[in-house]
Design a protein that fits this description.
By secondary structure, the chain is mainly alpha-helical. The protein is built from 4 helices and no strands. It has one domain.
Length: about 70
């Protein structure tokens, strides 16, 4: 199973299930050292850059993202 397939399956879970899975995944990262965490962020940045280059994702201005996040909190 690829990460993309796993992500699609995880997104089918009920919100409580997704939250539980997220907690488990995040807690599994606690055992990583700083170099491993940095490498994971580099890989994520490269993945996101490829998505932007291919058109699979689009960028949003930070101000707009923050405005939408603030509006959702109300």
């Amino acid at each position: 199973m690829t990460i993309e397939e796993l992500k699609k399956e995880a997104l089918r879970l009920a919100p409580e299930g997704r939250a539980s899975l997220a907690r488990e995944l995040l807690s599994s990262l606690d055992s990583l050292n700083d170099a491993e965490i940095e490498q994971l962020w580099i890989e994520e940045a490269i993945r996101r850059d490829k998505e932007l280059d291919s058109g699979a994702a689009s960028a949003s201005p930070a101000g707009g993202v923050l405005d939408r996040a603030r509006a959702r909190r109300k």
